[in-house]
Every structure is written in C-alpha cells, then in structure tokens.
Amino acid sequence: MKRSRERAASELFAAVYPRLAGWCRRLVDDDETAHEIASEAFTRLWARWTKVTEPRGFLYVTAANLVRDHWRKLERERRAVRRATTEEAIRPPTEQSDPSVRLLVQSLPERLRVPILLHYYADMPIREVSVLTGRKEGTIKADLHAARELLRAHLRRSLDHTL
Amino acid sequence: MTTHFDEGDGEPGRDLDDPLTVILRPSSTEYLGPPTGRYESIRRGANRRRLLRATLGAGATCAVIALAALPFRLSHHDSPTTPTVPLAPPPASSSAPTASPSQAPSATKAPSSTPTASPSSPADVRTPSRTVVPTTEPSRVASEPSAVATQAR
C-alpha cells in the first residue's frame, strides 16, 4: 500500500514537475523562484495526499495562487523601495515573465481562472474539470467562454495601448 | 444575451495567429527539470508537515475533550468533598459528670483529640492532662471566689 503510493507519487512528480516548473518560470523572474513555487505546490499536495482527488488540478491551482502571492509580495517591495528612496524617476519593473500568461492569471477572477488553468494548462478534459470544481459541464463551458472573451478584451486593450 | 458554449473539449480558436490562442496554448518547449535531490526534500518536507498537522490536531482534540470534561469532573467531584464531621459522643470518663456547663466546649474538644492520641507522643499525652485539670479543679475554683469575696468584705 505504502509502496504503491510512493510509486504513484514518484510517477506524478516525474510527469508533472518539469511542466509545472516551466509554467512557473514563465510567470516569475528566475529559475529558483519557479522551483520554490513548484516544490511548495508538491509539498502541499503530499501533505494531504489522501484527501486530494485530482492531484494535477490541485498542483496547478496551488501554483497559480503562489505565483499571485509572489507578485503581490514583489509589488509591496517595489512600493516600499519607492517610498524609501522617494525617487520619481525609477525605472519601471522589467517584464521578464511572459505578459500574456501573467494576464491570464492576474486578470481573471478565480471562478474563471481555475477552469482555464485546469483545462488548458493541466490538459484536463471538461468532464474532469467539472468533477474537480463541482460545477456542471455546461457551467464549465460557459466559464471557459466567458474567460476567453475577457482575455480577448484585455488583449485588445493592451494592443491598442501599445500601438 | 445568450452564452455561446464550446462545441467540445478541443481548442476553441482555430486561427493560430489569434493572440488568445497563443496565450492558451501551453508552451511545450519550456520544461524545467527538478534539481538533484529535490524529490526527496519535497517528500521529507511533506512528511514533516503532515506529522506536525497530525500532532496539532491531536493536541487540539485533547484540549477540547479536557475542556468539555472538566466541568463534569468538577461538578462530580464537589459532592463527596463536603462530608460533615461526624459528631462523636463525649468520651466516657469519671470527670465528665462533674464538668460545669461553662466548660462544655472543652469537653467537645476532647473527642477530636482522643482518637489521635497515642501514648507514644508526649504532646498528645499532655493534652488529656490539660482537659483533666479543669474538670478536677471546679470545686476548688468555685469555692475560692466566694472565699476571696468574703475576705475582701
């Protein structure tokens, strides 16, 4: 029993970790932070291994929340530095991470973000997303549609802004 | 306004130039392999955290049980801790009938000391002598004031 669980954990780690860490790397500034976030997601998963029915979805949602916390922390630090130095001409933060994925995680409300993450990034079919989130399949499809529309509007606005 | 549903589980956008398609297409090339020993360290950390959580849960459960059981325990414990002191009859001795009513309290004290008295301890030996002395004295003590009073007159 314990051995089979250990083997399942090892297989899951081998299958998901590189992709999850790579996805985190697109959102944060450095490899080390990406590894930290992916590791923390796995630690939280295995600390409650018996209670999680869909580990991949749990990992992606946890990682997305950790990334959001990381951004908030960075923003607080930037504000503190700005207050401390009182310099107006501070260079704006460099967008090293992929702005499109950042937009995906940052701009969508949680209700729409979770289905998008699970469906598109964790490769889960709509049926599984429905089971995991406890919503009907039709609701998930409607949420995905609404999320895409919202993202499209955000993208259009940002493209207009850059032009 | 009606909501358009997806027609299936497939990719929604057919146009590859659509920026939304680019966003929603997970990068297949960007993989970040785990550093050496990362799996073991994550497993250790998860085990530690699970153990800590179990310990905290058990502690909280015990605390709740103790808090719930304490009032019952105290209320149950109160009733036997209030026993009334049994009133023993005064010890049967020859001097008892001669004791005056004013010395009755000393007679009530005697039973309490009598059960604990043992000949081996000198302190307890003295206690009966003290109680005996007043009982033998009253006839003399009662006569002395009258004698003193007559002398004063």
From TrEMBL, chain A:
| Residues annotated as domain RNA polymerase sigma factor 70 region 4 type | 101-151
Which Pfam families does this UniProt record tie to the protein?
A: Sigma70_r2 (PF04542), Sigma70_r4_2 (PF08281)
> RNA polymerase sigma-70 region domain location, by residue?
12-76
Give the keywords, sorted: DNA-binding, Sigma factor, Transcription, Transcription regulation
Keyword DNA-binding tagged: yes
Give the superkingdom in one word.
Bacteria
Protein name, per record: RNA polymerase sigma factor
Its source organism is Streptomyces prunicolor
